[in-house]
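Researcher: Let's run the pair from yesterday's discussion. Sequence first, then tokens, for each.
Model: Starting with the first of the pair.
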Amino acid sequence: MPLRATVIPVTPFAQNCSVVWDDATGRGAVIDPGGDLDRVLAAAEEEGVTLEKILLTHAHIDHAGATAELARLRGLPIEGPHPGDRFWIEQLPQQGAMFGLGKSESFEPTRWLGHGDTVTVGNLPLEVLHCPGHTPGHVVFFDRGARVAFVGDVLFAGSIGRTDFPGGDYATLIRAIRENLFPLGDDVRFVPGHGPMSTFGEERRTNPFVGDRAVGSNG
């Protein structure tokens, strides 16, 4: 049975928090619980999902701000991001104050992730790809069977993640997209951190920052 998902925009930044689950078992995870936990938990309950873990693409406040609270409320382990984002996790209280999102807590992930690792949702494996550039420790979760990826703030429909935050790097981000994401296949659909879904093929062809006709590309 396939991976299923429902996307809940959370926080004033309309961050795409995803509840994902294995349809065969009903067991699932929350990807990037940035806030609005009442809505996230209501969505999981409506779908009959038994939450088993939290998965994090990166540790900016709109993606990770409610992680510690959710882990404590439901006794959930935290998997991700890559250790390169430890700085951002430690800065979560300051991030919350800076952006007016209220109290946020730092935390220690149960499991740090690296490129080539695998996480599970129920009985379904998701491949982990380290895609730095937006943050040093950003990871992407890829379901090869369902041909879908959860890419956080690496890539958007028609755009890419910002690289002007501490630890960001434009060239590194472009390389991660072209070397780690696009080779997965044009047919792969992706859930970005903000905005509508797209496919890697559509972005490879048309994205003005990283597509075939982008400045500096080989297309």
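Model: Moving on to the second of the pair.
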Amino acid sequence: MSARVAVVVFPGTNCELDVAGAVEQLGGTADLVFHTETSLHGAGAVVIPGGFAHGDYLRTGALARFSPVMAAVEQHAAAGGAVVGICNGFQILTEAALLPGALQKNAGLKFLCRTVECRVETARSVLSGRAEVGRVLRLPINHFEGAYTCDPATLDRLQAEDRVVLRYLDNPNGSLDDIAGISNTAGNVVGLMPHPERASHALLGSADGVVLLESLLAAAGAGSVAA
């Protein structure tokens, strides 16, 4: 039985089909779950994809945090299930307090859409379990508010607890400590700004995102805990 991944869709989400296609290309099953639903239907992992949830009105991710589906996402995370937020999804996870810190506007106030190099900093997360620490991945970014920030005490904890999942080699957006992705303490909730689903085939310019998505599918297949 293939690993099942719930891909959450908010009004304004625009990367859900990219994620679903990449998951299915790698042998998984992707179920699109609209933001008004209250169940993840037994999926083994959840992805909150990129886009502009609720048009990013008020504040990026702030409205999405209150959508009914987020209660199911939070329950899934609390039960140890795999949760990954990509780009706008990362912003939503910080708004929901499933991850610490926040994403602010890029340095120079410029929208960024290009491929960057990121280094895998830990294998202790659901997104990097199959990746070699130190491996450099070429992944696309596509954001205006992607500079990660947090207070000094939080940064100390992230570093001490091995929770920085990816770092930029050449920081494109002013992110604190070159952070491109982080996890929660248990490693089952991960947020990142680069898009692994857009680097899932050589025809897309890079297949470096495959190892991250395979890690997620392995975590999804380890057990379905979602309601």
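Researcher: Give me one sentence on the second I can quote.
Model: The longest strand covers residues 112-120.
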